[in-house]
Specification:
The chain is mostly helical and 320 residues long. It is 65% helix and 0% strand. It has a domain of 71 residues. Helix 2 runs antiparallel to helix 3, helix 9 runs antiparallel to helix 10 and helix 10 packs antiparallel against helix 11. It is elongated.
């Protein structure tokens, strides 16, 4: 309580679900991770707070509640590893995958007995979405295998709370990326690009009124990448639409000061201009020379004229 004071809670019924939700989400959100602390320390602080509150209550905590807590604790560790910026990113993502998977094992193993357990189902969907985000950032292992796992964990995810709006949009974006990038053997060929675009449009619909967020720019970047894949020949529509989405993403990233993402969009615009010039005969943006063409060498009229006069003098009769 501060200042050496303490308080004993009596006749107090602890809402354990809400407490654990608080401990596993807001306490380890990126905004709360200051100075890049260790994920283990973050999780330990959450456990300490919960343990202290449990010790202060007179309401006994049953087996279901204690088992439920150990399902949420690994999810908190997964969030902490994904939020950390000081360590090796690839190793942190692997740890997040491990702890999210362990949390799901606990949640799926726990029998549901009453209607109050509907909140547990919702939390399992959140953990599945977070696990899909970790798989999308994973750089170790097979990319096609991770794409399959993303599609599994984002399938039939029900996230209808207002607080889950961006997470819901993220799952739609991840499904779109997975459909676009999966191989021909696992997917539907050219149809996958149209399916991906439909998921991206659904994600933008979820983000109406949130155009200032980085996620909004991320979706436009992925739409531009997908349209660039489908663009070919002299059909102007895919080329112009891709460029428009790239510029929307570029403006938003620049406004947020996201230098790495700004560089990524410039790279995509470079690919766009080079391919459009090569495949569609596009001369390039106004005021710019076509890619691959060197500027013309300036003509040196004075030197040429001097050579002509010198040659003419030599050809005169009697010239030595």
């Amino acid at each position: 309580m501060g200042g050496g004071k303490s308080s004993k809670l009596t006749n107090f019924r602890l809402d354990f679900l809400e407490l654990v939700k608080l401990g596993s989400s807001s306490a380890v959100s990126p905004e709360a991770v200051l100075g890049n602390p260790s994920p283990v320390m973050i999780a330990a602080s959450v456990l300490t707070v919960v343990q202290s509150l449990l010790a202060s209550t007179t309401t006994p905590v049953g087996e279901d509640e204690s088992g439920l807590f150990w399902a949420f604790a690994p999810a908190g560790l997964g969030r902490a590893y994904m939020a950390r910026r000081a360590g090796t990113r690839a190793a942190d993502v692997e740890q997040a995958v491990r702890w999210y998977s362990e949390a799901l094992d606990f949640l799926f193993a726990r029998p549901f007995r009453n209607t109050a357990d509907d909140r547990l189902i919702g939390e399992s969907d959140r953990v599945r979405a977070l696990l899909a985000i970790a798989y999308d950032e994973r750089v170790l292992g097979s990319r096609q295998g991770d794409i399959g796992r993303i599609l599994v964990h984002t399938d039939t995810v029900d996230l209808f709370d207002e607080a889950d709006t961006e997470l819901r949009a993220t799952t739609l974006m991840l499904r779109g990326k997975a459909c676009r990038d999966r191989g021909d053997a696992e997917g539907l060929g050219a149809l996958d690009q149209s399916i991906a675009l439909s998921f991206f449009q659904d994600a933008l619909h979820q983000l109406e009124g949130r155009e200032e967020t980085k996620l909004w720019a991320d979706v436009h970047l992925e739409i531009g990448r997908t349209l660039l894949r489908t663009a070919a020949g002299s059909d102007e529509r895919p080329w112009t639409d891709a460029a428009e989405h790239f510029r929307k993403a570029l403006d938003r990233y620049a406004g947020l000061g996201r230098d790495l993402e700004v560089a990524t969009v410039h790279e995509q615009l470079g690919h766009h201009h080079a391919r459009r010039h090569r495949e569609a005969g596009w001369p390039g943006p106004p005021g710019r020379r076509a890619p691959g063409r060197l500027p013309a060498r300036p003509r040196r009229r004075g030197a040429r004229a001097r050579r002509r006069r010198r040659s003419a003098r030599r050809s005169r009769p009697g010239a030595t």
